[in-house]
Amino acid sequence: MKFYAIKSPSVQKIVTSWLECEKLTHGVKGCLFKSFATREDAESWLSGVSEIHGEGLRIYVDGSFTPDFDRAGWAFIAVENDKQIGAENGVTDLPAESRNIDGELTASLHALAWLKRMGKTGVICHDYEGIARWAKGEWKANKPIAIRYKEAVKEFPNAKFEKVPAHSGVKWNEAVDQLAKKAIADCKAREKAAKAAKTAKPATPAAAKPVVKTVENSAPTKTVKKEVPAQTKTPERMPSPGESLDLFG
């Protein structure tokens, strides 16, 4: 059996017959309708379909998890009049105890904190049921992550929640899903780069070549001419008395 959710200016209804759905929607301007496998999903779509018309401030939250990474990704996108006015994403501080659920609950808390910081009121749109159930005290918290969430969400007593169907073509829900996945991919890339930089060996510096300095003497070289005294011939014999010798001959 299929459930057909119908939303129009005059009708908001769930029917189980295509013929009845066609009768209520054919030729109706501004009418939206969609089929679902369960009534719960049909009701969730009806309650969240107002985002298509851009009514009010809605914050879409989601979480993500991959087996090769120990933490969960989280993200939220704030939408007003069908336009994004804010967004954040990241990974959980602690290893994920419950896979993507850690990211879902963390995203909800970040979204509520953003609303408080901005002084706004809005609706938290989620596809994981526990976000609202634990916040409203409808589910018992057993695991540490659920206990921490249930305690932390008490800070936001006026929080409003709205469940939207997962992977059903709701534009902003699909967008926040991708943003949560991107948070993990970005964190893995940063950590990989940091590890590579830490383990990389420092480059060996090239041997320095000896520097030969040429010292130029700017003063001109002065040639000193040394006078050599003329040599005097030594006579082979001593002159006789009264005899003269030519010493320079």
From TrEMBL:
Low complexity biased stretches: 196-215
Gene3D superfamilies for the chain: Ribonuclease H-like superfamily/Ribonuclease H (3.30.420.10), Ribonuclease H1, N-terminal domain (3.40.970.10)
Residue span, RNase H type-1 domain: 53-185
Positions of region (Disordered): 196-249
A Pfam family: RNase_H
GO molecular function ontology, one term from the record: nucleic acid binding
SUPFAM superfamilies xrefs: L9 N-domain-like, Ribonuclease H-like
InterPro entries the record matches: Ribosomal_bL9/RNase_H1_N, RNase_H1_N, RNase_H1_N_sf, RNaseH-like_sf, RNaseH_domain, RNaseH_sf
Protein name in UniProt: Ribonuclease HI
